[in-house]
C-alpha cells in the first residue's frame, strides 16, 4: 500500500501543476489509483464541476494517456480530504480517514473533525475516549462521510 500511496502523491503533484496552471480556478483535490494503469482525478472549481470542465482537464492530461487510463470526477458528497485546507474547511463534519501506519493501534478512523492545523487533523473518532491527532503525512485516504442531507 505504501508504494500505491507514494505513486498517488507523485501523480497528484504532477497533475496539480499541469491542471491548475492550464485551467485557472480548477483545484486538483486528489488522485487515486484505480489499478496499475488507471487513475481518477477529483477536481473542484468555484463555479462547480460539469462535463465540459472534466473534458478540459482530460485534454490537459493527454500526455499521460499513453501510460494510464484517466477518469476525471467532481468531488461528490464524499469529498476527498488530503490537504490541511481541505480538513480546515470541514471542521465539525464527519470523515473517514485511513493511515499508512497505526495510530493508537488502528489505521482506520471515522468521526467528527474537531480541529485541523498545518501538521495534523484531530478527529473525535468512534470507539476512542479522546480526539485522535493524525498527521497529514500519515493519511492515505480521507473523505467526508455522506449524510442524508449532503446527497
Structure class: alpha+beta
**Mean pLDDT over the residues:** 92
What order do the strands of the largest sheet run in, or round the barrel if closed? Answer: 7-6-5-4-8
| Euclidean distance between termini CA atoms | 30 Å
What is the alpha-carbon Rg in Å? 16 Å
Number of helices: 3
Order of helices and strands: HEEHEHEEEEE
Percent range for β-strand residues = 35-45%
Quick one: biggest sheet? Answer: 5 strands, antiparallel
Number-wise, the strands total 8
Helix content: 10-25%
Cα shape: globular
Query: Low-confidence parts lasting 5 or more residues at pLDDT below 50?
Result: none
Q: What would you note in describing this structure?
A:
- By secondary structure, the protein is α+β, with helices and mostly antiparallel strands.
- Helices cover 24% and strands 38% of the residues.
- It has a 5-stranded antiparallel β-sheet with strand order 7-6-5-4-8. A 3-stranded mixed β-sheet has the order 1-2-3.
- The chain is globular, with a radius of gyration of 16 Å.
- The two termini are 30 Å apart.
- 22% of the residues are buried.
Amino acid at each position: 500500500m505504501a508504494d500505491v500511496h507514494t505513486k498517488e502523491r507523485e501523480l497528484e503533484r504532477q497533475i496539480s501543476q499541469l491542471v491548475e496552471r492550464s485551467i485557472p480556478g480548477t483545484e486538483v483535490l486528489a488522485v487515486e489509483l484505480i489499478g496499475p494503469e488507471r487513475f481518477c482525478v477529483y477536481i473542484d472549481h468555484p463555479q462547480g464541476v460539469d462535463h465540459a470542465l472534466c473534458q478540459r482537464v482530460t485534454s490537459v492530461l493527454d500526455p499521460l494517456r499513453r501510460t494510464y487510463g484517466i477518469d476525471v470526477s467532481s468531488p461528490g458528497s464524499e469529498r476527498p480530504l488530503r490537504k490541511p485546507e481541505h480538513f480546515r474547511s470541514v471542521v465539525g463534519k464527519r470523515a473517514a480517514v485511513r493511515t499508512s501506519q497505526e495510530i493508537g493501534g488502528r489505521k482506520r478512523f471515522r468521526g467528527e473533525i474537531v480541529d485541523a492545523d498545518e501538521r495534523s487533523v484531530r478527529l473525535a473518532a468512534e470507539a476512542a475516549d479522546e480526539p485522535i491527532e493524525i498527521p497529514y503525512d500519515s493519511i492515505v485516504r480521507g473523505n467526508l462521510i455522506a449524510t442524508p442531507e449532503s446527497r
